[in-house]
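Reagents: none. Just compute today. Crossover junction endodeoxyribonuclease RuvC.
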Amino acid sequence: MRVLGIDPGYAIVGWGVLDYAGNRFAPVDFGAVCTDAGVPFERRLDEVYAGIKEVIERTQPEVLAIEKLFYQHNQTTVIGVAEARGVILLAAAQAGLPIYEYTPMQVKQAVTGYGKAVKKQVQEMTRVLLHLPAVPKPDDTADALAMAITFCHTNGNQLNRFMRRGVGPI
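Predicted 3D structure written out:
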């Protein structure tokens, strides 16, 4: 199964694609969609949408794992991220991808085994699990790969049962 993990934002959207089979995952591709702060916000949203749509078309994932929006003290930031999530979810829906959402605590728990791990611990464990020579940069990319790993850990046993029975993914 091919999984696209996304760390949403409007300045930088991290993305990472993993292949998952038999309790093993391997990185396929990863990167970031970056927008220019000097461009009108609606244009930035268009760039996020186009960038994620291109990643979906090129890598052909079967599911999308994305960070669930959580409360932030800065309302301006949370609104912008929510709008960026909207165009990302639109691109996924248009491609027919099932969408799975995870909180930061769920990602920390799935990747490190500790729900209160710090960001650097999650990124380093992501590097180790994927046998990468260095933590992917920007950080948003490593976070997106962690999101994809979370999907695999959270749904892996169920997916493997379906695959063995020949039913296919959920």
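The domain at 2-165 is CATH 3.30.420.10 (Nucleotidyltransferase; domain 5).
Action item: order primers for follow-up constructs.
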